[in-house]
Amino acid sequence: MRIGIDLDNTIVCYDGLFHQVAVRRGLIPSDVATDKQAVRDFLRADGRNDQWTELQGSVYGIAMSGAKPFPGFAEFLAQATSSGSDIFVISHRTRFPYAGPRYDLHQAAREWLAENVKELCEQRVFLEETLEAKLQRISTQRCDVFIDDLPELLLHAEFPAQVERICFDPANGCSGAGVECAASWQDLIARCFRGTEA
User: Fold this and answer.
1) Domains in the chain and their CATH numbers?
2) What is the pLDDT of residue 198?
3) Which end of the chain has fewer CB atoms at under 10 Å, N or C?
């Protein structure tokens, strides 16, 4: 099986990191909920969308080393290896942030993967600068399955029709025709490797 996986908010868990960086920079009070969406909603409600955009650039760049893989991802990767599956990381990530300091977001991602997911071969990591390029890469890598946290990507009109779509959604909030949801990497192990040895 050839399995494509998104990077940000699918492999990389930013829980707490957005909050930590925002508090450190004085952008939010510490009593704002620690999840990414709460930080975003607070800044946007206060008319500070530009600060949210800059914060994203920092977290996906210079601060990315503070993020961790989602629980269970290492076990998923081990199961994929033992079953003979091929894993490809296919991400839509601009090279530089839209606002703020000019961090190399691709370099930050590759350094994070080298530190946290050493089993992944560099040649199987694709960081695409546009959504269209990401969709094309999913097709050219001949993925049988693609796992992403964004239903809108999986439901895109140009998403390859032959690829099984799985929405990684720990908050259990995704929905949409043709999209199967998984709440954890343990759930994904069960869905992707039914009938294989654990």
Assistant:
1) 2-14+68-192 (3.40.50.1000), 17-66 (no CATH)
2) 42
3) C
